[in-house]
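Aim 2 progress update. The chain analyzed this quarter is reproduced below.
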Amino acid sequence: MMEEIILKRFITGPRYTLGVMEFGGKKFFVLEPPWRNNRRNESCIPDGEYIVELDSTGRWKYARVLDVPGRTAIEFHPGNTVKNTQGCLMPGYMFNMRDDFMSVSREATEDFRELLIQNGGRAKLKIVSAKWGRHLS
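Predicted structure tokens:
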């Protein structure tokens, strides 16, 4: 059975989407662009279930998300602000809400990739937006 990654988005707003991801006993923050109707290069991906696999051919070569409706090249990669992504997911260990800044992202992304390797290079990703989350306007 494939290991499951759970990403619970708890803040959605016009500047960013922020969630907490649990995988292999570790927790990560995940910074994404805001929801913009799943537009390529601008929006976070829709809530749902996907497959994540190790990536050796993409731009970042950490991990990629497969079968996102209407989208390709969705990757997990390091980054500090939403300006560092065009729709991808950026793990980190600290997030400063005042400055919209993700810290310790490279280490978190490498730790995430290592967990994926330990789980055979593939895992199921379940993304949900928390009903109790904050919706910033």
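The CA atoms of residues 28 and 136 lie 21 Å apart. The chain is about 10% helix and 45% strand. These observations will guide the mutagenesis experiments scheduled for the next reporting period.
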